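Revision sheet: structure tokens.
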Amino acid sequence: MTKGVKFILICVIVVFAVSAALSLYFLRPADSRKVVVLRDSTELYSFDLSTAKNETIRIEYKDDGYNIVEIKNGEIRISEADCPDNTCVKTGVLKSEEMPVVCLPHHLILRFSDK
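Predicted:
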């Protein structure tokens, strides 16, 4: 192998290792089981997923929008929204403290609480 090929191979291995380490860090399960639902930094709801009952909550946004938050089997997610891209629905279940579920058009955030 030439020096150039070895250098490229080492760079690829380093990038892969760093990417794997960062993925494991950001996608690790949350320590907390307490979740808050926020809109514009105002807490709308707070849940302890270890004791929360299965329920569905409709959260209205002004006059023309909504999100449906679903708690089921100790997990929370946005199951339905009328925003144009539905990124919040596609995000799925809230799993990591580092990656909240966010609906930007409706200013809604589901995240684990440190309280």
